[in-house]
Amino acid sequence: MNTITLGDVTLTRVREYFGPVDMTPETFFPDSPAKAWEEHRAMLVPDFLAEETRIVNSAIQTWLLRSEGKTILVDTGVGNHKERPYAPVWSRMNTGFLDNLADAGVRPEDVDIVINTHLHIDHVGWNTRLDGRSWVPTFPNATYLMPKDDFDFWNPENGHTSVLGRGNQNVFEDSVVPVHRAGQTLLWEDSHRIDTALHLESAPGHTPGSSVLTLVSGTDRAVFVGDLLHSPVQVVEPDANSCFCEDPAQARVTRRKVLGWAADNNALVIPAHLGGHGAAHVARDAGNFAVKGWAPFAPHAEQG
């Protein structure tokens, strides 16, 4: 099962990649308690952690929404043929992502809106495709919604430094500039209403412009949290950041705020990179949070 319905909105999971990301928990989540990975082993293995190698597993996927007659993509993964000299896991990928999107009934020209929750390497890649020797917008009729704070932060002309070092090299040039030059970007600040069901809000910490997409339709609630969470461990240990957070203190505050809203509103929490069932309902638990149930999406591991 790759599609669910939330109120009047349908949500489909479109896969690009699932597998190891060449990092152990200690590297990926350096301030996570070691005991958490043992205590919650049954929840983590094999979808989120390889038992024998202790390498973190991650999904690269796009969330496809159909809402009020619009076709909307949330994050666009890594992309094909991109030169990523400082991120070899994602360099020169050649996946069947567009075929998977077609299997979901969507051609590139059908997409009305692309949402980049932030502008990291693995969230903007399919913004563009290679046409001869030029990068062109993959979705020619779409408006690309990008947080202005991230657009400014990752623009090399502004000279900002990042915890990634050069890990995001080439990303702005090949996956952001071409759509901006084509006049297809909308750079928003603070918040942006898409339709009656969907609302973008700033959620800084992971990056300066990180955002979340809230869905409220009928009695259903969901929140697409981008990289506020990379692993279920960050639900049970919400102060554990990934090594990629630009502002660790702010990331912790934002994560607790969003998880608290989700718990209080019975909202499905939908991160960008969870394998397994992809999303979860959470509950408050003695000052932290717990996973109380998983979404019904089929785990990537069962899809081969």
Detail the poorly predicted runs: none
Q: Report, as a whole number of angstroms, the end-to-end distance.
A: 14 Å
Strand content: 25-35%
Structural class, by secondary structure, is alpha+beta
Overall pLDDT metric: 96
From the alpha carbons, calculate the radius of gyration and give it in angstroms. Answer: 18 Å
Count of helical regions: 8
Sketch the major β-sheet.
7 strands, mixed
Overall, the morphology is globular
Features:
304 residues, alpha+beta, seven-stranded mixed sheet, 8 helices, 20% helix
Q: What's a concise summary of this model?
A:
The chain is 20% helix and 30% strand.
Commentary on this structure:
The strands form 3 sheets. Strands 1-2-3-4-5-8-9 form a 7-stranded mixed beta sheet. It is 20% helix and 30% strand. The chain is an alpha+beta fold. The chain contains 8 helices and 16 strands.
Secondary-structure map:
Elements: E1 3-6, E2 9-20, H1 25-28, H2 34-39, H3 41-44, E3 57-67, E4 70-74, H4 97-103, E5 113-115, E6 128-131, E7 134-137, E8 143-147, H5 148-154, H6 171-181, E9 185-188, E10 191-193, E11 198-202, E12 211-217, E13 220-226, H7 233-236, H8 248-264, E14 268-271, E15 280-285, E16 288-294
Parallel strand pairs: 4-5, 5-8, 8-9, 13-14
Antiparallel strand pairs: 1-2, 2-3, 3-4, 6-7, 10-11, 11-12, 12-13, 14-15, 15-16
